[in-house]
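Case study.
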Amino acid sequence: MLKDLFSRWPVIQQIRTRSAGTGAEAWSDRTRNLKPKTAGCDVSRGVCPYCGVGCGQLVYHKDGELISIEGDPASPISRGHLCPKGANTHQLHTHPGRLKKLKYRRPYATDWEDLDLDTAMGMIADRVWETRERTFEETRDGQSLMQTTAIAHLGGATLDNEENYLIKKLFTGGLGMVCISNQARI
Amino acid sequence: MSGATDHTGIQPGEITAFLTDSTLCIGCKACEVACKEWNDISADGFDFTGWSYDNTGALGHATWRHVKFVEGQITPGIGGNSAEQFSWEFSSDVCKHCEVAGCLEACPTGSLVRTEFGSVFLQPDICNGCSYCVISCPFGVVQKDEDDGRAFKCTFCTDRQKAGLMPACAKACPTESIKFGRHDELRIEAQVRLATLQARGMADAQIYDPTDSSVKGIHSMFIIRGEPETYNLPPKPEVPSIYLKEGWKSAAFEAVAMVGAVVASFFLLGRKG
Amino acid sequence: MPGLGTSVGRGGATTAQQSLADSDAILIMGSSMAEQHPVGFQWVVEARERGCRVIHVDPRFTRTSACADMWVPLRAGTDILFLGALIRYVLENDRWFKDYVVHYTNASTILREDYVDAEDGAGLFSGWDDEKKQYTPETWLYEGSEPKQSGGSHAGHHPAGGGHAKDRGGEAGHSEQFETDETLQHPRCVFQVLKRHFARYTPELVERSCGIPKDVFLKVAETYIAASGPQKTGCICYAVGWTQHSTGVQIIRAAAILQLLLGNIGRPGGGILALRGHASIQGSTDIPTLYDILPAYMPMPFFEDDAKNFEAYVKKHTTEAGLWSKFETFMVSFLKAWYGDAATKENQWGFNYLPRVTGDHSELGYWLDMADGKLDGLFVMGQNPAVGAPNGRLQRKAMANLKWLVVRDLVETETASFWKDSPEVERGELRPEDIGTEVFLMPAAGPAEKSGSFTNTQRLLQWHNKAVDAPGDARSELWFAYHLGRMLKERAARERNAKNAALNALTWAIPTRGSVGEPDAESVLAEINGRNLTTGKLLSTFEDLKNDGSTMSGCWIYTGVMPEEGRNRANIREAKDSLGHGWGFAWPKDTRIIYNRASARPDGTPWSEEKKFVWWDSEKREWTGKDISDFKKDMPPDHKGDLSKGGLEALDGDKPFGMHPDGRGWLYVNSGLKDGPLPTHFEPLESPVRNPLYPAHQTNPPTNKKERPDNRYANSPGDPRFPFVLTTYRLTEHHTAGGMSRALSHLSELQPELFAEISPELAELTGISPNDWVTIVTPRALISARALITARMSVLEIEGRQIHQVGLPYHWGWKGLVTGDVANDLLALSQEPNVRIMETKGLVCNLIPGRHPAGHAALDELHELLEERP
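After joint prediction, the assembly is written out as follows.
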C-alpha cells in the first residue's frame, strides 16, 4: 500500500513519466473507468408531462428504478432538447415529497390518517352511490334527464387520452354526472 | 429526424469544447437543471436575489451552470435581438476548462487532472478539501463544500463524453445556444458566427476566449454582446503561477542577496578579528 | 377554441411548431413563447436566424421580447384595438391577398338588411336583449339562409352552452344557401361590412389607447404584412395571454381575420399556432372532460333544447354540406362505443342514457354552486384549483361545503389540504373542527409509470411507455376510473332500475394485467379509434363509419390512430420529414397542417415554388405533396358543388374549409358566438380607462361577472382605490399551480419566491424599494410579494395620462419546498361569454409598501382598504 501511495505521488509520477503529473498518469481507477449512469439501462420512449409542446423523452431505467430522463434526439418537434421542467422529469418521479401512501381525513378531523387503498376505493364507491341515490333525476317534465349535479369532476389536461375517455364515459355516460371540467382555460 | 441519436462520434483524445452563444440563449435555465439532474447535485439555497431573473447567483460546489441575466436599455419597438441596442442579455456561465488552469497547477494531491478530452476534471475520490484550487481559479468557479469536505466543479460530463455522448447541458439546451464539439471546429464556428452577427450590425458582439492571457485560452468559449466585465468575466484572467514566476525571481534575487550578505558579513567579522 | 373553430372549422392549432422555420414573419402576442414553450421556440429562433422577422407584442418586456426583433408594449386588454388596427391597415392600403380572400373566405357573402353592426349600434350588434343580457343572432345570418326550424335556441347561443361544441352556425341557418358578390362591392357583403366595422381602429387610436407609438405600430404593420402573398407567409402564435380575457374568443377571431385576409391559413410557415399549456390539453378537449361536449366536439344534449329525442338532436346538428353532414354517422358510432349491444336502432342508439345539460356546469359554474352548498362530492385529478383557479378565497371556502372530496395527485397539493393549512385556516375564517369534508388523498402514477397517449398543442398523439411501476399506493387514473367503474357496475347489476340503466348499459370490458390489475391502455385507444362491429376489424379512417350501428368509434377525429391490431401509430417513432410524418399521429388523418387545400391556387397549382405544399396532380387525379391533404383526395379543383349529394361533394373544389357548410374561412361568423359576429373592442371588466370606441358599453355586454359579495369588482372605469393595471402570467421555471415544480429542488431554487414586477417610476410613486415586500390589493384579496423593480415594466401614455402596470406570476401556494401567497386570490371569478374563461390578464390593483400582517389582521386591512380609501 505504501508502495502504491508512493508511486502515485505526483513528484514521482512526474519524474517517472517526465510529465506534469496532471494527465493520464494521475487518473484514479474510478476516473479511468468512468461510465455514464445510463450505461446498461433499459430505455423507454416517453413524452414530457409538462407543457403542450410534447417533447420526446428517453426514460432510462434499471431493475425497476428510474435512472435518468433526457431528451429524445429523434423527435422531430424537440430534437433532443428539454426545457428546465422537462429536464426535471426524473426528480418529478423520485423526489422525497412524492406521495406514496393514501391519506385519509375524517370529517372534522385536524389531521390525516392512514387508510389502505382497497378500503378507500370501497368507501369512495359508497359515497358516489349514496349521493346518486339521493340526487339523481331520471326525468323532468316527462323528458329524459338522467342527471345528477351533486357530484363534480375537475382535471384532465395532465391526464392521458385513455384516462379522460374512461372518466368521461363512466362519470357522464354511466353515472349521469354533468359537472365535468378541466384546466382547458389555464 | 429518425435515426438522430445522442452519439457525437467524438473519440477520446480529441479535444472538446463548449461554445455558449448568448445571442441564441432564451434564459430558460434548462442547462442548470439538466446538469443538476445528471450529476445529482443538491439545492444551492432557495434565495431570492432580485438580480433580474437570476436567483442562482454564482457558480460553486453545487452550481456548475449559472445563467446570468443582464438588463440593459428597454425601448418600445426594439426587441432584444435587434442590433440597435442591448436590452436583456442571458449568458450561461460554466467552468472555463482553461488551457493553462490555475486550479490544476495549484492542486497538491493530484486530484485535479487533465482528461483525454482536454477538460479539467476534479477527482472526488482523491480530493482532500485543501482548497488551494479555490483561490487559484481566476474565475471563481471551483468551491469547497464545507459539509462534505471536498471541492466540486463542472466535470464537463466526462462520464458522458467517455461514452461518446454530449454533456447534459448541451443536450438539453432548446436553441443549441450551448454548442458542444471539437475545440478546433468550435473555434472556427465562433469566428463565423461573430462575422454573421457583425454583418447584421451587432457591433457589440464578441468572442470571449482570452488566448492572450496566461490562461492561454479556454475550452468553454462564449459569444457575448458587450464587454466581459458586464458578465463578471475577467477581461484578462491570469493563472496565479505567473505571479509565482515573479515570486521565484524575487526569491532568487533574495537568495543571492542573502548569500552575498552572509559572505560579506564573514569578511566584516574577519576584519574585526 | 371557438375563436378558431368558428373562423376556420376546428378548435385547434392549424399548423405544427416545426413549420415556424418556414415563416417569413412571426407575430407572438398573448404569449411569451420563449418562456412557456421554450423547446417549441427553437423553431422561432431557427426562422429568425434565416431572416424571418419576429415581433413580440406584450405589456411586459419578457424573455421572448429579448429574443425578438421587435418588442411592442401594449396596455393589457387592448389586443382587439391593436389587431383591429392591423386589419384596417390591410384593408385601407389594399394589402390583402386578393385571390385567396375572394375564393377561400366568405368576404363576398351578403348579409341581411336587418343586420346592424356594432359601429352603428354604439357597441351593440342587432338582436341584443337587454333584459336577458344576451343576443338573438337571427339577424346575423346570411342573406338567403333560412333559419332552421329545429327548435330551441340558436346553435351556440344556449345560455348553458360552453362554446366548445361543433355548433358553429352550420345549424342555425341553412348557411349553404347564400348570395355572394364576387366583386366585393355590395354594401352588405362581408368585405364591406368588415371595412366599416374596423374603420375607426386607426394608428392614432392605437397610440392613444394601447400606448404604442404610431411609428412603432406602422413598422409592425409593414413588417408583418410584407410577409404575405404567394411567396411569403407569416404565422401568429398565441396562448392564454389571449384566451384569459373577457373578450378572449374575439381576440382570436381578430387574429383569424388577419390571417385569412393575408392568405396565411393552410400554408407552410403560416397559420395560427395556438400554444396550449398542458401535456394533453388538446386531448382533454378532444376527448373531453368538459361539460358541454362529447368526444370529437359533438354537443352534449341540452335539456329542452335539442334533446327531445335522437331525431331532433341529429336534425339540429347536421349540416347539409361539409363534413358535419355526417353528424348522425359519427353520433351513432359514438353511442355504440359507449353502450355497445345496449344501443340499438329501437332505443335510439341509447341516446336516453346520456344525461342532459341543464345549466352552467362548467368549473366556475359548479364551483359557485359548491360555494352555495349545492354539491356533495368532488373528484380532482391532476389539478390544483386552490391555487390555480380565480378568486382563491372563494374556491377554498367553497370546498369546505363538500361532503366528500377525492384528490389524486403526485404530491399533497393545496387543494387536498385546504382544511388544514390554507390562508382561510390561518386567518381564522375556517376551522378544521368545523369543516365536515371527508377527504381521500390518493397518490397518482407519474407518466413514466403508466402507458398512454397525450395529444399536444399541434393535435399530435404521442404514446408514452411505462418504464417502472408506480411506488406504493400510487396508481394511474386509468386504474382508478376502471376499477371504480367496475365496482359501481357490479352494484348496478344487482340493482337494475331506471336510475342505473346507463351504468348497466355501459360497455366496460377492458383487460387488466399485473399484480395491481392495470387496465390495458391500448385496448382503450382501440375503442377510441373505432371498429367495424360486423368484421371486428379496426378502422383506418372515419370515412368507413356507418350510421346503421355496424361501426363504433369513441372519438371519430382520432380514427386512424390504430388502423390495425398491433399498430399503434401514436407509438411509432420514425420521423421521415421535418413535419414529423411517421412520428405519432395528428388528427385528422395525420394531417400536419390543416386546411392545406389553401396552399394551392383555386386551380390546384401551388401559389409559388417557395411555398409549395399540397397541390393537384392532374395525371394521377389526386391531391399530393408534403402532407396528407385536408381535402377529399380525389376531388378535382374545378369540381362544382352538388348540394343534392350533400357532405363534401356539396362543396366546390376550391373551398378549403370543409368543416364549414360553405367551405369558406369565415371573416364574419354568422352564428355560433354569443358576443358577436365580428371582434369589437371592449375594456377589461376592471379598467382605469373608458372604452374609447363605445363609451356607452364599457365591457363585453354578454360577459357574466358572477358578481356577488365574495366576488366583488372595482368600479370601472377608473376606481381611485385601484389605480394600476395588474396582469398575471407564468414563469419558465415553474408549472401552473406548483405541484410539479415547487416540490422539486432543482426548479424551486431557480425561482424561490413570489415577486411582483414593478417599473422604477411606479416604485418611486409608491415608495417601494428593490427586494422589499410589497402588498398588492384588489377587491377580492391582498397578497404580498417581493418587489422586482425593472425597466421591463414600462409606463404607458394613455389618453394623455400615465398608466402603470404591475406584473405577477401565479405559481405560489403554501405547500412545497418554496412557498408564497396565492396570486390568483386577487382575481375575480368571471366568465367570458362563450367559453367561460376567467379574466386574468387585465385587472386593476393598488400597491402598498410592506408585507401584510399574519392572521385575521390581514382581512381587517383588506376591508379597510375597500371601504375607507377615498
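Observations recorded in class. The CA atoms of residues 48 and 86 of chain A lie 6 Å apart. Chain A has six helices and eight strands. We will return to this complex in the next lecture.
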